[in-house]
Amino acid sequence: MAKENNNKKDNNNKLRVKLKSYDVGTIDQSTQRIVDVAIRTGAKISGPVPLPTRVEIFSYQRAANNDKRSFEQFERRTHNRIIDILDPTANTIAELSNLKLPTGVGITIKS
């Protein structure tokens, strides 16, 4: 059998940052801050990639006894973004751990 040439670069040095928020404005500000930190510290980035928005619709009856056909509907949208940081330096990781993000933005960082 012929040997395969693996010319691909080993991507062990990669951080995946996942962001979740109910407000699209705050999540866009947060992604811009993370991208600025990564570029400033010399790391390469891939993204931000917007993932599909999760829409949850809740229906509640308005009054318990008056009108059974009267419902209120509420909607909650969860916006998601992914940023891959390729070849992060120690300075990049330190800056990301000390980064202040707006309230309401959930962040998970995996290596």
TrEMBL record:
Gene3D superfamilies listed in its UniProt record: Ribosomal protein S10 domain
Span of domain Small ribosomal subunit protein uS10: 16-110
Highest taxon of the lineage: Bacteria
Matches recorded under SMART domains: Ribosomal_S10
A single GO BP: translation
One protein family per Pfam: Ribosomal_S10
Gene Ontology MF annotations: structural constituent of ribosome; tRNA binding
InterPro entries referenced in this protein's UniProt entry, alphabetically: Ribosomal_uS10 (IPR001848), Ribosomal_uS10_CS (IPR018268), Ribosomal_uS10_dom (IPR027486), Ribosomal_uS10_dom_sf (IPR036838)
Keywords (A to Z) from UniProt: Ribonucleoprotein, Ribosomal protein
GO CC entries: ribonucleoprotein complex; ribosome
Family listed: Belongs to the universal ribosomal protein uS10 family.
PANTHER family membership: 30S RIBOSOMAL PROTEIN S10 FAMILY MEMBER
NCBIfam families: PRK00596.1, rpsJ_bact
Subunit structure as annotated in this protein's UniProt entry: Part of the 30S ribosomal subunit.
Role: Involved in the binding of tRNA to the ribosomes.
Name the UniProt record assigns to this protein: Small ribosomal subunit protein uS10
Species in which this protein is naturally found: candidate division WWE3 bacterium CG_4_9_14_0_2_um_filter_35_11
